[in-house]
Amino acid sequence: MEPPVRVRSREGEEVTCSRKAARSAGTLSHMMENSADGGSCPVDVPAAVLRVILDACNHDDGGFSLMASHSLEELVAVMTGANFLDAPGAFSAAARQLNTRFLAGKSVEELRTNLGAENDLSEAEQASALAEPAFTPPPRQEQAEQSTAGRGVSLLAAEDVLEAALGEADAAALCRLKAVSVAWRTRARRELCNRLCRREGQPEPADFASITDLDVE
């Protein structure tokens, strides 16, 4: 039987996991390959979050069922930690829980409440966002002017983590997200446009003129 892997959390607490779990996290797998003395692997992830991720890495479903009772804030923390550890299974499981329980089937107002987002769009802007084609790309100016102050979930994770999480959202939820706030409109537009219009090796469309194909499947 292979010896367990020791991982040292942000607080300095040592957490052990199976080698199967460690191999499911690219960062830990790389550390194992480059560690000659078998010492603990230091990671910038809180101990409580680290335990969830390592436990999830032992399950074929990435720990989806294990996270069924996690709060939105806890799921975002797991995604942030999984992103750092390069643990795609755990990240996807947390993102699917977030989208299934907090985004799918929710109204614009419910989404705004769940995400703790600021209502910084006028009624006309909200109506326009809901009426626009699903594949509308975010203008470069909008991306540059996207709110940096943020609130709610926007304060809990880096932009790349939030955008990756939307990869698990259904198109209907993404369309409603566009009316939640400026920041979420940009994220939803980018995800929808990339999903429907972007082709491998091609830059992200910046306007309708740069869209050459639509994936309608």
TrEMBL record:
UniProt record, GO biological process: ubiquitin-dependent protein catabolic process
Stated family: Belongs to the SKP1 family.
Protein's recorded name: Uncharacterized protein
Region (Disordered): 131-150
Transmembrane segments: none
InterPro entries: SKP1-like, SKP1-like_dim_sf, SKP1/BTB/POZ_sf
Organism: Phaeocystis antarctica
